Amino acid sequence: MNKNRIPIFFAVDDNYIPCLGVAIKSLIDNASKNNLYEIKVLYTNIKGKNQKIIKKMQQDNIKIDFVNVSKHINKVKQQLYTRDYFSAATYFRLFIPELYPEHNKVIYLDCDITILSDIADLYNIDLKENLIAAATDGVINDFEVFREYAEKVVGVSNYKHYFNAGVIVMNLEEMRKFKFMEKFLYSLETIKFRVAQDQDYLNRLCKGRVKIISDNWNRMPIRKDKVPRRKLKLIHYNMANKPWHFDDVLYQEYFWKYAKETPFYKDLLKTKDNYPEDKKKKDALVIENLTELAKKESSCIGDDRKNNKRWRR
User: Are 171 and 131 in contact (CB under 8 A)?
Assistant: First the structure.
């Protein structure tokens, strides 16, 4: 029987290999035997032994390949701005349309996630002519300063249209027609986004052609209104909300459920138990520091929304 092919991309470095293992384990446990899940892990610096550990997770309907994208990233590496806990790997997703012309549609996932439903259901969302399908960003929605940033600096028409790029379905066929890569490289030379980096570029370039989906496909611990398990599809431990660093992260029980079933469980426990206090204090200030950065960026740009009641002072 021919199986439905579900192409899935991750982008990681060695530091996130244990989290990748948890994400893939959760994907496997919720996968349908009727589908073939083709996982590609984009990287520039992952040890061979770590690749072997991850590849041992393969099954008849789960294929895992590691793809070194160094030669593509090196061309623009000096222009890729990063901050805090981010690495250049966060930009890798932007190269997928050109690297994989054989695919018309793929899923991209950050590895700080736990999947609680069949990821094929996300892939099967009808994109029509939209470039991206994604959930709105919880941080943008819940903090007014980021709403203003999304509209003034990134340039989306309404902050409710600003999406989180950690869980996306990419319409590669339409992105190529749109000349996405060409426009991204041009933007990289002319604009420097400091708040959400590659996510801001994606939102600026794709605006007006984004299908907004339920945030149960990208549920973030920062949103304190807890959702019942039956509704949850995917947890995204974004920002500093990492169960492998802290004990009080919302939805952490799902992460540890799957972590226990991977070879990385003891390493993850050790990481949490030995996470330095100075880093914990720094993580606690992430939102505060990001707020100040967003305020600064927004204050440097004029505001033409004076007729919009929501922004009247």
Answer: yes
Segment 257-275, tens digit of pLDDT: 999 999 999 999 999 999 9
Using one digit for the tens of pLDDT, what is the confidence trace for 20-67?
999 999 999 999 999 999 999 999 889 999 999 999 999 999 999 999
Cβ pair 132, 94 in contact under 8 A: no
Q: Which residues, 6 or more positions from 148, have their beta carbon under 8 angstroms from its beta carbon? A: 159, 294, 298, 311
Nearest to 107 by CA among 45, 228, 51, 24: 24
Domains of the chain (ranges; CATH) run 4-311 (3.90.550.10)
Partners of 71 in the beta sheet?
Answer: none
251 conformational bin, left if phi > 0, alpha if psi -120 to 50, beta if neither: left
- Whether the Cβ atoms of residue 75 and residue 81 lie closer than 8 Å to each other: no
